[in-house]
Structures are given as structure tokens and as C-alpha cells.
Amino acid sequence: MEKQLILYMHAGSGNHGCEAIVNSLCHMVKERVLLVSYRALEDKKYSLDGLCEVMQERSFDNHKLAHVLYYIYRKITGDAESFIRYRYRKVFKRKFPLAISIGGDNYCYENMLNDLRLANSAFSRAGTRTALLGCSIEPELLDKKEIVTDLSVYHTIIARESITFDALQRAFARGKEMEGPKILCCPDPAFTLKAKYLPLPEGFTEKNTVGINISPMIQGKEKQPGITMACYRELIRFIIKHTGMQVALIPHVVWEKNDDRQPVRQLYDEFRDSGRVVEVKDASCEELKGYIERCSLFVGARTHATIAAYSSCVPTLVVGYSVKARGIAKDLFGTEEHYVIPVQSLREKEDLVKGFRWLQNHQRQIQDRLIHLMPEYQKQALLAGEEVDRLWEESSRQREI
């Protein structure tokens, strides 16, 4: 049997966090990777081209008649998995022993839950073992029986931080009547991502530049309309007025309806005349990490932008909104306090400045901790690849019986 590993629930490399997970995992595992992608053209544009085989999911977008027929079929039969079998038809035609849902924070989004459940069920029904890799799940979600029932179908779940890991263990300890999956905790694969170094844009001074990432995602989570941009503006003003550092605005997701470049461009336009602010253009996850690694400090909203900073030993303040930011900070520093500012807690325009000043005042201690901790932390991240290899071999033997 050809050693080919299926990765699914991948949304596309325009989210460079999704790209970073796949890129890193491809370098970890022995199997050839077949990536089933929602946006295959994006994957071929960035770092995954040649690193793995990319298969475009089937879509109803250009097949309206098929959509209607499948909808009628599902209504008549109640076969909700039929849509999943349509999306992954080429995969289901072949007999794969193992399929990995590259979870990330998919379970944090209500609109993803049904597809996650149906795909998990459809693969399992076809005789393919499933595993959930690198996931973060809000503990409150695990109070819902239907979520725990879905998660119980996975053979293995690898959480990427301890808050999710502990919550999963509690959830399956409660459900004694339900056979639970194997639950492990390994850091996000992207902690092992290799950086590539493009020439720095004019005005980006290596190790004397604050990297800043902002996203529409956190703007949508704010409790007070407009407070996120107000806080970022005040932060940039503070850096310009009270430090000698430059500012590099760095996007990490460039999807049409969720594009970091929009708030980045807005901030750049407001401060470009200062001569102290640089706008970094879109690039692959490896190249973006190359920019982030050459920053002195980092303030970021996107999880994998902050993972790129952490893994480069750059002191980082996270503007977070979910368990993933809190869990990763807790595992690295023993606490989320001072390291994560929930966007929901922003009330005053000075709130981000206060967090940045603490980061600046403790820069050396934080950097020393990351330098000391990161080699072992990255070794722990590599264990996820070893577990996938072991699980593939075990699943292959099981299928042959």
C-alpha cells in the first residue's frame, strides 16, 4: 500500500496559519501527503507547491444542478453525509487507512461544526480512521453532548495547548459510557516552521522594529465598536513618540472576506508620513516568519503570526479572542496575564499601550525564557509527526486484517 496521508478540512493557504500547519507537518511525517483543499490554487501559489500533492475539493458553486439533486436526495433519504462524499469524492474512491483533520481552531467556529461532524462520520463509515491534529477547543463547547459524541469518533485527538487537553480529558472522564479517543498534547506543528528571508523593505530596521499584526477577525469580536483600531492607533503613536523603533505592519490572512491587509493599509495610510511605519506585503508563511523573526518585539492578533514570533524568540503580546491564545501563552509562560489581552476586554484606547509597555519593560527576561524553552518545546511539537507516523502504520495493519 502506498504510504499516503490524507489531510482534510484545510481552508487554503491564503490563511498563512493553515499553510504553516501543513508545511510543518509535511516536514515531520514519513508519508507522502495528499492535501484535500478548499482553495487549491492558493496552496500552489505559496509554500505547499511541490511539498505535497494538492487536491481541490469538489464544490457546488459551478454545479447548480448537482446541488439541487443532492439537496433533494438528502431530503428524501436523510443522508446528510452525501454532501461530504460529493466534496471528497476522489478521496472516498481510494482506500486510505488514515485521514487527519488539521483542526487548528476549526471547532471554535459555529459554522464549521456540522461539516466537521459529517466529515468525521463519513470517513469513519468508509473504514478510514480519523485523527484531529493541533486543535484548540473552548472548554464550554465540551459541555454539549453532540460535540463530545462527534469527538469520540476520532481515533486520536492531539491538542495543541493544555487548556484544551485538560478540558478533553474531563469531558471523556464524564462520559464513562462513551469510549473516548486517545488524547495527546503537543505544541502546534508550526512552532517548527522554517523561516525564509526576503530583503527587508526600506524602513524595516532589523531588531529595532516592532512587528504589528491586526485582523478583521478580532475587530468582529470587540465589545465596544471601533476600540480595536483606536488601541492600535494609540500604540503606533506611542512607539513613534516614545521609542526609537520602527513599526512593521504584517498581514497573515489575505482572504477576500477576512483580509488583514485592509486594517493594515488603513493604519499605514494614517502613519506613512511619519517615516516610521512600513507595510509588509503578502508572502508565504515561511517568508512572513522571516520578517517576524527580524523584529525586536511583536504585537499580533493572528495565532500563527504570534507562533512565528514565539518560535523566533521574539517577545510577543497577543490580542486574542479564544482559548488558543490563552492556552499557548499559559504553556509557554505559566500564565496568560500580561501576555494575552482579550480583544473583548478592550475599553480604553490606552489599553494596548499599557500591555506593550509591560512587554517592553520585560523584554530581556521574556526573550531569555523563550531562548531557554524553545528547543525542548519544538521537540515536543515534533512528537505530533511521530504519532501520525505510528498511527498510519497501525491503521494500515488494521485495514489489512
Would you give an account of this structure?
With 401 residues, the protein is α/β, with parallel strands linked by helices. Helix content is 46%, strand content 16%. The protein has 16 helices and 15 strands. A 7-stranded parallel sheet has the order 3-2-1-4-5-6-7, with helices on both faces. A 6-stranded parallel sheet has the order 12-9-8-13-14-15, sandwiched between helices. Strands 10-11 form a two-stranded antiparallel sheet. Strand 5, helix 7 and strand 6 form a beta-alpha-beta unit. Helix 12 packs across helix 13. It starts with a strand and ends with a helix. The model has no long low-confidence stretch (mean pLDDT 93).
* Range of helix content: 40-55%
Order of adjacent strands in the largest pleated sheet: 3-2-1-4-5-6-7
Broad shape? globular
The structural class is: alpha/beta
Assembly level:
single chain
Biggest sheet: strands, sense, closure?
7 strands, parallel
Secondary structure: elements and pairs:
Layout: E1 4-10, H1 16-28, E2 32-37, H2 40-45, E3 53-56, H3 64-77, H4 82-87, H5 89-93, E4 98-102, H6 113-125, E5 129-135, H7 145-151, E6 156-159, H8 162-174, E7 182-185, E8 209-212, H9 216-219, H10 227-242, E9 246-249, E10 254-255, E11 258-259, H11 261-271, E12 277-279, H12 285-293, E13 297-300, H13 303-311, E14 316-320, H14 323-333, E15 340-342, H15 351-361, H16 363-400
Parallel strand pairs: 1-2, 1-4, 2-3, 4-5, 5-6, 6-7, 8-9, 8-13, 9-12, 13-14, 14-15
Antiparallel strand pairs: 10-11
Helix pairs in contact: 10-15, 12-13
